[in-house]
Amino acid sequence: MNFITSKCNNLKGRVRLKGDKSISHRAALILPLCHGDAVVKNFLFAEDTINSLNAMRMLGADIKIVNDEVHFKARGLQSLKPPVKSIYLGNSGTSIRLISGILSSIDGYFAVYGDESLCRRPMKRIIDPLNIMGADIKSILNNDRAPLLIKGGKLKGIEYSLEVPSAQVKSAIILAGLNADRETKIKEKVRSRDHTERMLKYLGADLEIKKDEIRLKGGQQLQARDLFVPSDFSSAAFIIAAAALTENSEVTIEDVLLNPTRTGFLEAFKNMGGQFEILNLREVNNELVGSIKVYRSKLKGITIEGEIIPRLIDEIPLISILAAFAEGETIIKDAQELKYKESNRIESIAYNLKEMGIEYEIRDDGLKILGNTYILKDSYNFYSFKDHRIAMAFSLVGFVLDNVRVYDCDNVKTSFPDFVEVMEGINGKIKIV
Ligand SMILES: O=C(O)C1=C[C@@H](OP(=O)(O)O)[C@@H](O)[C@H](O)C1
Ligand SMILES: C=C(OP(=O)(O)O)C(=O)O
């Protein structure tokens, strides 16, 4: 599947998006560990999050989908048992890393694997701490990548300092720690998304966050509770960028997740000169939610570095597009983690910027992009590198420069299956061929 996008303006309307991917994963993985019944509304039914649901079903979790809601009858971690088959997690880093934390605390053997891209991503970051807790996790090909063979059982609580700023690693340790024999303490130098901590607190967990340290009691029982999943901020970011880049646009995105550990993109966008308003800000199930009204914006280049990086890591492909149409230079630093996503995002961005004729420099921890240096051509041909965020980000270039084709966009279904319909709904000119 390829995208063709064309020049457009006047993006208008009100948009309501499906639930946040990170929170949907956590609902799928954490609710079966609780006791009681719960209904999840606005769950994101995308390939990645469906992989999390199916994995928990393979362990015996009672999960039913009724009229777009997910119904859980949860009987606790002890009710989950090793499946006969290996657990396939597709393209989803969040699924494989978080579930490895859960499996580590269940008696038995589990094999987990994913698609070609997932089997290239680093797993030592979870293997090491989970093995210190008492699991026995082996990389089957001995390359610190999936497939992983996990022997789970009794775990001990540990004190652990995160080497990489990663919510997936932090969450794997927290989920393992829930059933450990004593307290677990995790230190993170740079704050990453905290949805696991927030959801666990909402479900009654004994968990404390003090400055850079998370403390969690071992052997906890959680109570299932209904959840509403706010709309995905990372998906909303594509609409924000599309409206900002096109003449005469004004779009409102309703009830979006606005947790500050996720909204670094809005801060960067504002510093670039982005025009938007936040409306109806409130808390829902221990997460911040509000609507974003965004306008056509004249942008300037900025430097993005340090603690903000984990809070906008998935939006860096999109920030590169904004930078390409901004006045002056944008520098992205401290973003080495981009190399370990669905593709090496530093290289994927650079390859496509080159196709635009943009002047840029690749660095070990990011990129330097010189705005408005693109060359006017009859058409532009981008490659997604089978990475959903690269596909969606570069498709927006066509809204400004016309005649864009992005090849191999099937992976958009992993996070934003209705991307094309949503864009069309606000007058975006996008076709699938
Ligand atoms: O915990 C999560 O839901 C996620 C954490 C981030 O990954 P890392 O933890 O590897 O930084 C992010 O890139 C990913 O899209 C989702
Ligand atoms: C990196 C991403 O997801 P994951 O790590 O779950 O594959 C993403 O959605 O951009």
From TrEMBL:
Pfam families: EPSP_synthase (PF00275). It is an enzyme of class 2 (transferase). GO terms for molecular function: 3-phosphoshikimate 1-carboxyvinyltransferase activity. Keywords: Amino-acid biosynthesis, Aromatic amino acid biosynthesis, Cytoplasm, Transferase. GO terms for biological process: amino acid biosynthetic process; aromatic amino acid family biosynthetic process; chorismate biosynthetic process. Residues 8-423 form the Enolpyruvate transferase domain. It is found in: Cytoplasm. InterPro entries: Enolpyruvate_Tfrase_dom (IPR001986), Enolpyruvate_Tfrase_sf (IPR036968), EPSP_synthase (IPR006264), EPSP_synthase_CS (IPR023193), RNA3'P_cycl/enolpyr_Trfase_a/b (IPR013792). Pathway: Metabolic intermediate biosynthesis; chorismate biosynthesis; chorismate from D-erythrose 4-phosphate and phosphoenolpyruvate: step 6/7. Phosphoenolpyruvate binds at residues 21, 93, 121, 168, 345, 389. It catalyses: 3-phosphoshikimate + phosphoenolpyruvate = 5-O-(1-carboxyvinyl)-3-phosphoshikimate + phosphate. Its main location: cytoplasm. CDD domains: EPSP_synthase (cd01556). The active site is at residue 314. GO terms for cellular component: cytoplasm. 3-phosphoshikimate binds at residues 21-22, 26, 166, 168, 314, 341. Its EC number is 2.5.1.19. Catalyzes the transfer of the enolpyruvyl moiety of phosphoenolpyruvate (PEP) to the 5-hydroxyl of shikimate-3-phosphate (S3P) to produce enolpyruvyl shikimate-3-phosphate and inorganic phosphate. Monomer. Belongs to the EPSP synthase family. This is 3-phosphoshikimate 1-carboxyvinyltransferase. It comes from Caloramator australicus RC3. The gene is aroA.
